[in-house]
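Entry 14. Structure prediction run on the chain below.
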Amino acid sequence: MIAYPNSGNINLFLLRVKTDADDLGNQVLRLVGSKEVVGMTASITSKEHYSSKESKVLLDFKVSIQVFLYDGSKYLYVPNEDTIYKVERTYQNGMWMELYASETQIKKEDIAGWNL
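Output returned:
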C-alpha cells in the first residue's frame, strides 16, 4: 500500500450531541446530527502531551480534516475502533482543521437516536 502525503487514513463520524433530561430528571445524551468524513491522524507531539497533562485533559490523538467539513461537532466516532472521542480543542492550520481528541466512556447505546 502506498501512502500519499495529505491523504486520508481514517474514516470517522462527526457527532452533534445534545444533553436532555428524561422523565425522571436523569441526563440523557441525544444524537442531533452526524457527518461521515475522512481525516488524517497524527500522533500528539511531546509538547502537546505535556501541555495536555498540565491542563489535566489527556489527549489520545489528533486528526486533521478540511476546514469546510468541520461543523463544530464536539464528539467523534471511529467505527473500526467502535470508540467515541470528545473533541477537546481545535486549531485551524490553513485549509485543515486539527481536532485534538480524548477517549470517552460513552457507548453507542448511551446515545438516544443512534442510527449510524
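The CA atoms of residues 30 and 112 lie 5 Å apart.
Filed with the rest of this week's runs.
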